[in-house]
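Internal ticket #5521
Category: modeling
Description: The requester needs a full-assembly model to guide mutagenesis choices. All entity lines are attached below as received. Residue total reported by intake: 436.
Assigned to: D.W.
Attached entities:
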Amino acid sequence: MNSRDTLVTELNTLADFKPVVPNDFKDADILMLGNLNPSVQLSVIQQMEKRPKLIILDTMNFWMDNTLEDLKEVIAEIDVITINDEEARQLSGEYSLVKAAEKIHSMGPKYVVIKKGEHGALLFNEKNVFFAPALPLEEVFDPTGAGDTFAGGFAGYLASTTNISFENMKRAIIHGSNLASFCVEQFGTERMQNLKKEDVAQRLHQFKALTQFNIELE
Amino acid sequence: MNSRDTLVTELNTLADFKPVVPNDFKDADILMLGNLNPSVQLSVIQQMEKRPKLIILDTMNFWMDNTLEDLKEVIAEIDVITINDEEARQLSGEYSLVKAAEKIHSMGPKYVVIKKGEHGALLFNEKNVFFAPALPLEEVFDPTGAGDTFAGGFAGYLASTTNISFENMKRAIIHGSNLASFCVEQFGTERMQNLKKEDVAQRLHQFKALTQFNIELE
């Protein structure tokens, strides 16, 4: 089997995965749906006792190729979608990411996060757009998991601050980018397992220095 | 002739170009050397009465392929180099842009600006790094001249503010990105010819909204 066949087999196996939401989590304010079969994602939403304040969905091109109708059904139910630039183009049929985000908005999500890997991430909300750069690194040892780390950092920040305003989502995007910048420094989850709060706080200074400027507005 | 042959012929013709610096410009504080044969760039430096406070150089892969030694000679004389990401990799032999900038620093320039097209631009100065995004646009009509507009906006801002600190260079990079975002909206120089100060001021608000965030540092 080639690697694509292997991926298809693995993802089809995951489609048989029937997650049961524990009772203690059924009233969560923030629901993060990882990149799985859309029908599995939908079943998790349906198990919630009350509609979470914010539902975030991660997905990928495989589901667009193979289960597009199911995917559209779950996309209509969620608030934030995180996908990469190529996937945004595939899902929307638009090359311009601004137009792609507009089309995806019209499919349901109020917020569209487009991940551009080493080129950072964009957050769209109606006419607002925010950009978080990836930190320029001397070496990217292993990019595996960077997108998941970004999504986890984003959702975790919103959950821990109990604030889902656009301003706070900007902070959450920066926090996700911050964590992802560590993920790629070592193999697999190694760097994340040894990460300290001080490291994250110190790197936040680097993100500020990287992007903040002071120029007079007229 | 294919397009590459045409380019080579045109650039060789440009090598015969012998610019004479007018007397009124021989004491300029800021010198911007456009993307030409390095020997032409060097001859302009040599015509200056006094060493400008800041010499900025734009170049490209053609000169790296064909006149590398001359190019290195002029690079050793200048303060700021602006090149794109692929050219930075070619010139330095390093894939990581952080390492590429370090190597290029060691060739002379205190400041290295790496242009990444639709993905923005990076400014390196020793251990400092600043990133200016490109504005996400609905449509890029014609990217021709965006890099030159960026370089002109950058140099023009520094000249008009008579301040070559790193803080002001950050503003200059934003200003260059701002102007370049207009350049691509219409064909050739059309948009630039009709551009108004208010348009630029208004778009600066968009750049602020795009990148500025407020997150507590520890």
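Resolution: model delivered.
Comment from assignee: Residues 6-211 of chain B form a domain with the UDP-N-acetylmuramoyl-L-alanine:D-glutamate ligase fold (CATH 3.40.1190.20).
Ticket closed.
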